[in-house]
Amino acid sequence: MYRNLLGIGAVFLAALLLIGITFSAQKELPADFRFVNGTEPKSLDPHVITGQPEGRIVDAIFEGLTYREPETLKPVPGVAASWDISPDKKTYTFHLRPEARWSDGVPVTAHDFAWAWRRLQEPAIGSEYAYILHVVSGAEIFNLYAGHVERLVGAAENGEPTADSVAGAVRALRASKPDGIEAVAWQKFLGTQHVNDVVKGSPDPVIKAAIHERTEVLSADRLQKIEQSLRAEAERRRGLHAHALEHFGIDEGVYAKDDHTLVVELVAPTPYFLELTAFYSAHPVPRHLIERLEREKEASGADMGREDWFLPENMVSNGPFRLEAWRVNDKIRLVKSDTYWNKDSIKLGIIDAFPIENYNTAMNVYLTGGAEWTTTYPTSIVDALKERADFHRNAGMVVYYYRFNTTRKPFNDRRVRKAVAMAINRQLIVDNILKLGQTPAFRLTPPGLGDYDPPPDGIRHDPEGARALLAEAGYPKGKGVPSLTLLFNTSETHKTIAEEVASQLRTELGLDVKALNQEWQMYQASTLALEYDIARAGWIGDYLDPNTFLDMWITNGGNNQTGWSNAMFDRLIAYAGDVETFVPDADELLPRFAEPDRARTLLAALAAADDAAARVDASAALRLHLFREAETILFHDEFPVMPIYFYVVSSLVSEKVRGWHPNPQDIHPLRGISMEGR
Amino acid sequence: MTAPVAEKGTSLWADAWRRLRRNHFAIAGTLMLGLVILTCFMGPWLMELLGHDLERTYPERANLPPSFSDWFGTDELGRSYLGRVLIGGQMSLLIGLVATVTSVVLGVCYGAIAGYYGGKLDEVLMRLVDFLYGIPYMFLVILIMLMFSDAARDSPLPIFFALGMVQWLTTARIVRGQVLTLRHQEFVLAARVLGAGDMRIIFRHILPNTLGVVVVYATLTVPAVILLESFLAFLGLGAGVTWGLLVSEGLSVVNPVQSYWWRLLFPSIFLALTLFSLNFMGDGLRDALDPRTRR
Known about the structure:
CATH topology of one domain in chain B: MetI-like fold
Shape of chain A: globular
Oligomer: heterodimer
Number of strands of chain A: 19
Order of helices and strands of chain B: HHHHHHHHHHH
Helix content of chain B: over 70%
Structural class of chain B: mainly alpha
Radius of gyration of chain B: 23 Å
Largest interface: A-B, 31 and 21 residues
CATH class of one domain in chain A: Alpha Beta
Structural class of chain A: alpha+beta
Number of helices of chain A: 23
CATH superfamily of one domain in chain A: Dipeptide-binding Protein, Domain 3
Distance between the termini of chain A: 57 Å
Distance between the termini of chain B: 16 Å
């Protein structure tokens, strides 16, 4: 009996010992710094990613020509040790550090950058951020014009437009409407065919006039001329694209003069260009690795995706850290790179990033000392958090707003949109629901966008005035307004705000509004297809310039999604892209400006500027004024969207962490962080 | 097995009622359920009568603990949480009831037809039930919920339908089993001899004899459905404001730093009370209607 027990006990002990040995062998080194990254990155390819969780990792393992100095976020020399800017501010020459290395020891050269920037614009990569480097000459042509040609005349080789192309549709329209077509129907046709995007920048006066035609009937003859012009435009774009294929990234736009000299040519002076060179879309990618993997893939015939190069077993990067491990739903581990040119400035040895989505879990991990930084926590506890010394918050460069569907009753009437915008008590929302000191917003551009001076608020909280305006639009006390839905994507905060806004509109204006939740994918599809009445949205500024908040509202802009269109607004945004084109048209437009005197002063300053540098400064000031006029159109009368508040970004950061600086863009480069006492 | 006529001249139902009365848990459960239903449907009406606008938000009074003016405290938008819990109760109880009725009607008809006709038809019908049993019910519910367009998803109709669709299978099996034993009994033969048609025999003669079992099963289905809906609410697939949704939201505001405990406690109490009551009631009914447990 006892012998038996003894035997069992011995076996048991042996098993325990074995388990112990197995697990102790697997034990990893503890990380120096751990943070909650919110979610699992979709990818770590700098040209594919769009989100913050991806950006935090990619910015740590790659380095662009410049990087953001952790405290000020101003671009400082990264791979590029220095740069020269031409007097017209359109050509940048970067001098790369010879000592910059990939993590496998291969030198980082100017060729890598030229190749990477061309790769970003490859239509096959499908980068959603390709547009951010469209300021580089030839980039937009290389990126989009093949698609434009196909949209304009179809894929056919013989030159005859196919039926599903724009030119083919215009031809069919002419055949079905021999007496011509009304301007309203024509504009609707332009919208459903998505014409504006594919002829943007066309020099053809026939096309320009057709796009802006809002009054006259278009005769069959004119439609024929338009079709010919569209075909000519397709040919022009085909030629430009063929040229870009041969030259963009090779000897034009962006190219390597020698191994360590990179030349970038811009379409127009771009004040924020150096900031873009620190942005992750402009990071280099290891060409030698990607091409080798592609060759191997071809040779073996194995089914290996394009994404495979950034998995830990392959990944080669050039930043201060390298990717050590990526275990899905567990963590991403980064370790300090030995090959980084400035490795002595890096304090952290090992970093762990946790993809925790649940807010409660994130906070519990933080509170129990499992992580030193979390950006997510349950929103219900902000009152308690505000008391804590490790809680950091500051105004963010993010705006929260609602879109109106301007193609549907009742929001096709701008007075209704303005009335709704006036009825919302934003102060009540920020004080009682958000509680972090957010600012009520009556425009889209948050404070602190460089030298931009936003227009004064066009409205204030005024339920009385809102009711009057609604009555003026023919809906006294909300009578006659169909029942409306207020669409939001899944989130506790969005839901609370949506229910509050719905309740306010019911109480103040007598509107029957219902908050409706949709998953992110479905919500995006609904807003894109204009299947909503009011829809929640937010916009994070990608760079410190009003352009990032305003250029999306142009007619049929990809992120417009309201159906709103305003010719004057479109022109102002186009002029702001290249101020020189505004000067000849100024006399025609000034009478329609809200502040013509201010514009005249700036024009005079531009005319008086005698050297190139002064001219650049004067045109930059005029450019900002054009944005101010554009934003005045948006938020004094038109209100295609209704801003609610400017975000406050917040984090819980352990008091042992050094080098973590609050900033409006909510970017906290890992390279700057160190731990107390280590 | 069943005794349509008892010797003492009391009917099955009178007999059952006598036994049920002696079961204190069942009686207490029934009374409690009645109280919950009454509160949920009368409460909001009374509150509106007293001048509370239950839908209007008062953000400046958000997340207040229970007090004299707000017995259950307030939610994140300052709405009376008592009102929220009662309105949620209406929807939860309605879902329980409607989904159960759907499943019972469907299951009884299906099972009766399969059991009565037997043979090939029975084989086919019951294999279909087996097949549907094989599909994970959660998968089926989510699929049905997603089939409806978004506009309809805010209404409770899809969830009534979806829950009814997964609950009728067991009813169908039970009823089929009952019908199989009943269809060869003398009273069925007598009815047939008197010239009654198939439908008349099924619905007038056989089904009333299965009623006891069906009632018991239905009583136990209601809490199952309410619980299933709560589970769906946790997955974000619920229908409007229900106890499940309130509990799920309540859970997300309970944490080590700052907790609004009332938002978890009150809907949980109501949900638990209802589920207990229904289960005690179902158990009592089963004991009362099943002659084999006769004391």
